[in-house]
Each structure stands twice: as structure tokens, then as C-alpha cells.
Amino acid sequence: MPDKTFLESVGRYFDAAAPHTGLPDGLLKQIKVCNSVYQIYFPVKIDGEVKVIEAYRAQHSHHRSPTKGGIRYSNHVNQEEVVALATLMSYKCAIVDVPFGGAKGGVRINPWEYTEADLEKITRRYTTELIRRKFIGPAIDVPAPDYGTGPREMAWIYDTYRSFHPDDINAAGCVTGKPVSQNGVRGRSEATGRGVFYGIREACNQQELMNKLGLTLGIEGKTMVVQGLGNVGSHTATISQDEGGVKIIGVSEVEGAIYNPEGLDIHDVIRHRGEHGSILSYPGAQSFGKDERRAVMEFECDILVPAALENQIDADNAHAVKAKIVAEAANGPVTADGSAILAERGIIVLPDIYLNAGGVTVSYFEWLKNLSHMRFGRLQKRFDERNYQRIVNQIEETTGKSISERDRQMIVHGADEIDLVRSGLEETMITGFEGIYAIYRDQEGVNDLRTAAFALAISKISNDYISLGIWP
Ligand code: NAD
Q: Is 4 designated active site?
């Protein structure tokens, strides 16, 4: 029977992993259900007319506080979608050891149809509704960007929250993904895409996995196709090209798709779209119009990165996927039926609940920064630099040789905030991969990385319930 909704797919993934955890049914049920959903309708005056806006905030699990998850602005937002996304957030946080429960918000609008002033009105009103019901706060529930939202919306949320709580010294921790000038953290915008890159790189470093796929070891030289050049897709593509030596050969956006097996310079493609408003007609590439944009899923490549929306690979097109690795940068881009077909065909899926966890990881760093009221690196940077200088001086004196000015600068450089954030993210993605891969490799009956990831998440959440005494 084909799966009907995104939520149903998430439920099926959970059910497939649950038996591998050895946990009792009652505890599994508590970990599976969504604890609370707040549905709101509120009026906003736009162009002299009152529009009634539908919005949600779902908190899937309170085993840790605060709850955490993005806010999505899209025409397709509905309760089931928000609950499915909140559910994924709980598992995601568990996998990467971020001490939050899962949550997600959604506003049912097409953000590209509204002016900036209208979006500000909607965002501030939505935030006010969340404040009223205590669905937001640095110790309660902390939103972040998702599809259709970004640092600008997060700054409005922060400002609205702050004006209702002028005496809350931790108010900046009520939302993450804020601009750096508004108590954000350096490296948050790129974090999800950078995390996706680290995750793919880890998978490509597994000899056994690469042998299975008939691919060479390492990410360098692999070909990649990316669906969606928004926040996640553009950073995944640029970082994979610049730091991984990956060849981007296809991309798609709302207006269509382009493909060039010889390689595309992703920076130039992004520049072209900025100038012409479209990726189509990019020189030297084959173009597919809006109606054919789903063809991107069938482009020949090593790594396919869906980075737009859910349900992009399903029972209809999973047979036609030619990639060896499907890297779920978006949430829920492959349905449960699609996933089963890909598994049968020997295609490796790097699951969303691990692969796109870089965003929430760096959001956690931002929240910590807000609670500590200090930029990362401020205490130790100069101290470290002085020490490194002394060591280099000593080595030069002892050996009688001197190093180049460029090398000296590299060695003595103390860590800035961006260095620490990237390093913390890299460590998190490597450790997360190791945890999932160990279950996939060693546990009998676990045949895919998604089941391994769900089993890991469920076990970690159950430990909280048991050790906190929430579960008898
Ligand atoms: P975004 O709004 O910045 O970008 C999405 C892009 O996809 C847009 O450029 C849009 O035009 C494009 N798009 C929409 N429909 C398309 C289609 N049919 N074909 C091709 N392109 C299409 O959103 P984002 O923040 O990059 O989020 C993308 C996905 O990643 C979502 O599933 C989101 O839940 C997930 N995600 C985002 C973050 C984050 O930090 N932003 C974190 C984790 C997961």
C-alpha cells in the first residue's frame, strides 16, 4: 500500500527500527507520539484587507528542555507536516547529542507572494501568539529558520519576544539563526549545508560502503546533483565543490533543472540565477523546464542531494534514480515506499535525521552563546596565540631555521568563533556518523542507515526517560 503522508513515512521508519531497540511497547509509544500541537488562526491586514492566517507549533517530545525546531513558511504547511517535522527534530537532536526535545512551526503562506513589510507583520503576530500560549522562550521552545524563513524572520521573532519580556536577560536565546549583529553566531547560515558535506564525506570514507557501491574511497572527484539552491542546497553544493573537490553536474530550482556531465561551476550558476532570475539557459548545460524539473532525480551521478522539500522520491520515480548515494539534505525527501525501492536497488540513503542535523547543532552553539553572553573564542584566542608564538620562536632558535611568514601566521592563529563553530560541527557530524554506522555494520537485521539512525535515536531518548525517572 503506498504511503499517504510524510507523517506516515516517519511512522513507518520508526516502526522498522523499534524492534532493534529491545524497548517495551509503552515506552516506544511515548517516544513515537507528538506531545502537543498548537493550531492558530490570526488576522493580518494586508493591502487594506484582512487575511486569516493559519499557523502551527508542534512540540513532539519534552524529554529534554527546551524544545527546538525551525519555522516553515509554505503554502503546503498543514498539521501532519508540522508534526512529522517536529518528530524528526527529536530524533535528530538525540543523534547529534544536542540536549533539546523536538519541535517545529509552520505558517501556511507562500512567502514569495508577500512584501517584506507584510512578512514582518505576519511574523510578529505569529510570535505574539506563541508568547501568549508559552510556546516560545529560551527555556521553553526555541525556533530557528526552515524552508521560506531566514535570519531576517528570526530577528523579528527575537525583537518581538524581547519587547514582551524586557527583563529577561536570556531573551536572545528564544530563537536561533539570528543575524550575527543580533546575537547570532558565526557559521549558522552555512551550518546545515556544511553538516551535509561532512556527513557525505564520512560515508565516502567507509571502504566497505564504497566497495558495495563500486565507488572509489573518498569524496574527491565524486559527481553530485542538487535539488534546490536555497540555504541548505547552495551551501552543500559550494562547500562540496570548494572543500571536497566534488564535481557538481546538475542542479534544479523551481523554474527547472540543468545538467552538464562535464561539470558546472556552482558559484557561477548561483551568480547566473541572481542576474537572470533563473538557472535555465546557463551556458553549456542541458535545460529542463518547470514541468520537467523532477527529472533532476533521474540524472546520472554518484551523489544526489534533494535539498528542497519532502516526498521528492517515491514509488513512482525511485526505480529511475541513477545515483549511488541519496543524501537527504531536506527533511523527508524520500517516502517510505521510495526508500524501500532504493534499498532493494542497493542505493545508499544518508538519512535526514542525521545528515541535516548541522543546523540544529550550530543552533545549539548559538543558544549556548546567548546564555553565556559571550562570543566563542574571546577568552582564549590571544592566550593561545602568544603560546604558539613562543613555541615557534623556540623551535626556530633550537633548529637555527626559520619558517615562512605565511606558515607562521597559520600556526600561531588562535581560534576565532567561526573556527570553533566549524570544528564543533565537524566533530558532531563525525561522531554521529560513527554511532549510526556501528549499528548498521554490527547489528543483525539492520540493513540500512536510516533504520540504524532511528534505532540510535530511540535508544538515546529512552535513556533519558529511564534515567530521569520519567519512565518507571
Ligand atoms: P530555503 O527556503 O532556503 O530553500 C529551498 C529552495 O528550494 C528554494 O530556493 C526554493 O525555490 C527551492 N525549491 C522549492 N521547490 C522546489 C522544487 N520543486 N524543485 C527545486 N527547487 C525547489 O529552505 P532551506 O532552509 O534550504 O530548507 C530546505 C530543506 O532543508 C527543507 O526540507 C528544510 O526542512 C530542510 N532543513 C533546513 C535547515 C536549515 O537550517 N535551513 C535545517 C535542516 C533541514
A: no
